[in-house]
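ok here's SPW repeat protein, seq below lol
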Amino acid sequence: MKKWTRWEDYVAGVCGLVAALSVIVTMPSSAATSLMIVFGILLIASAVLNLSMPGTPWLEYAQAAFGILLFVSPWIGSYTGSAGAAWTSWIAGIVAAGVTAAAIKPAMDTRHKMMPSH
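and the structure came out like this:
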């Protein structure tokens, strides 16, 4: 697996970017703004790391966790009533977690190929 070629990580990074920047448009509460920006930035950072270091399964699991946390953040931050912010979190979070889940097995396979055999 080559660096900078995995579409799944690009999609997860875009989901993070959408979540972080959507606070400008949706103007949610301060709790929602904080959660969306933090989880958005974490998704972007994990996507960049995954793109630069293919075959690192723990990074894929971390990225999936950030997507799941973004998905549940409307309930954590009590902003389910803010339709724009909540729907953005739900959609971006589930898409990021879903594409990352699809990338975990290939990352594990790449890791096994890269490891020296005994």
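fwiw The helical segments are 7-26, 30-52, 57-76, 83-114. kinda neat tbh
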